[in-house]
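Students often ask why inverse folding is considered easier than folding. One informal answer: many sequences map to the same fold, so there is more than one right answer. In these notes we will look at a single instance of the problem. The structure comes first.
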């Protein structure tokens, strides 16, 4: 298999660890090991005595039990733990898809949600999201694509969405699941920003809870602010498919890091604390962004996100967005992500607002605007 370079990751590899102000981060403010261990009285001692042997390939039973509690109808044995969400995507695509299969991907999208399928030899239809429609994709186009492609295997969703912050309504999400059911399609639902809805009433049900062919992708990186643990998972009712995913995992990571699984289970036992802290940061920063973009209406088009810690504003037409982002990083140390890294045209850039130092980053951004634009 030959996969195209991951444009977003190559861009971050160049700038992420040198720019002092990461204003494009897709995750939330992280926690230290000490902060996690302080959540439980005996956690530090347990962590010190943790044996660094192999772990269960499916995932630590305690961790799978905590993950299952994020869902309404998922049992621990219906959870498979991976080394990050990326591994889950890669394995799902390789197990389910054959050359010549057709999938439909909500786009713009995280590159692995379509690039792995393309490398396998599948045909990918992009279910396009447009700024003029406030990023809301057309359900009619989804139905049309399925009708025109009898070999469609799966619909790939992401809500809350990276990079736009778009959130399907409950009615829309139910309609998509019903379309999948009517055509016998899998629904692979990237739900890594679930629980970061600004209003909990907007939270969608998990695909794994709604449909026997629904798979829910989760991760510790985004909502919980723990990307360094490299722990992700897939929850699904289709146990036969889960066994196939587990068998493929024998050729990738085999099992996960014991310290990471211990800390992930600890964090999830206290998930409400982590979620509420990060939601508070997100809400405060979103208010700052509202004011910032209101001030600069001649320079940017601001489409307010519906959920999550990222948004996808648009730059005015006479400025090249990639040159703009690179210049900002090199002159003022503020990193934004140009929309070109998502394999789409246009003038959008991703801005992240889940970090505590966003006010400082925004001040540096303001200095750049005053001097250069």
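Output (designed amino acids):
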């Amino acid at each position: 298999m030959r996969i195209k370079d991951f444009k977003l990751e190559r861009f971050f590899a160049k700038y992420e660890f040198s720019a002092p102000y990461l204003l494009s981060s897709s995750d939330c403010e992280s926690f230290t090991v000490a902060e996690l261990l302080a959540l439980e009285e005996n956690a530090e001692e347990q962590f010190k005595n943790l044996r660094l042997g192999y772990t269960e390939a499916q995932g630590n039973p305690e961790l799978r039990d905590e993950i299952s509690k994020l869902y309404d109808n998922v049992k621990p044995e219906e959870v498979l733990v991976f080394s990050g969400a990326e591994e889950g995507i890669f394995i799902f695509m390789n197990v389910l898809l054959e050359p010549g299969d057709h999938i439909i991907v909500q786009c713009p999208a995280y590159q692995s949600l379509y690039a792995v399928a393309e490398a396998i030899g599948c045909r990918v239809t992009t279910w396009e999201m447009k700024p003029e429609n406030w990023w809301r994709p057309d359900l009619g186009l989804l139905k049309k694509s399925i009708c025109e492609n009898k070999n469609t295997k799966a619909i790939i969703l992401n809500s809350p969405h990276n990079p736009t912050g778009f959130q399907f309504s409950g009615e829309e999400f139910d309609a998509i699941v019903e379309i999948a059911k009517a055509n016998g399609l899998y629904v692979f639902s990237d739900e890594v920003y679930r629980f970061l809805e600004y209003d909990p009433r907007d939270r969608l049900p998990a695909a794994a809870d709604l449909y026997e062919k629904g798979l829910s992708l989760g991760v510790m990186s985004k909502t919980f602010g723990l990307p360094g643990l490299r722990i992700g998972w897939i929850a699904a009712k289709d146990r036969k498919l889960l066994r196939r995913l587990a068998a493929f995992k024998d050729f990738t990571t085999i099992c996960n890091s014991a310290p990471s699984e211990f800390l992930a289970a600890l964090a999830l036992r206290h998930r409400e604390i982590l979620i509420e802290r990060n939601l508070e940061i997100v809400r405060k920063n979103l208010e700052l962004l509202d004011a910032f973009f209101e001030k600069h209406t001649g320079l940017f088009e601001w489409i307010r996100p519906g959920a999550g810690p990222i948004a996808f504003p648009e730059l005015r037409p006479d400025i090249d967005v990639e040159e703009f982002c690179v210049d900002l990083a090199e002159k003022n140390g503020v990193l934004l992500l140009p929309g070109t890294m998502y394999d789409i045209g246009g003038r959008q850039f991703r801005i992240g607002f889940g970090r505590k130092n966003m006010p400082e980053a925004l001040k540096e951004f303001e200095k750049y605007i005053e001097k250069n634009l």
